[in-house]
Amino acid sequence: MALKNINFNTFLIIFIFCLIVHLNHCILIGIVK
Question: What are the TM regions of this chain, as residue ranges (predicted)?
């Protein structure tokens, strides 16, 4: 159970990190255009 919780937290952190990177990328494209 603890292992699943750790895996879920890791997945959540990676997902949020990717989301932030994607948003920053879109913002940079918007600034360039």
Answer: 12-32
The Cα diameter of the chain in Å comes to 48
pLDDT, tens digit, for every residue of 3-21? Answer: 777 788 898 999 899 888 8
Q: Which pair of structure tokens corresponds to residue 12?
A: 């959540």
Q: How far apart are the first and last CA of the chain?
A: 48
- Tell me the CA distances in angstroms from 3 to 8, 16, 23, one per residue in order: 9, 20, 30
Rounded to whole angstroms, the Cα distance separating 33 from 16 reads 26
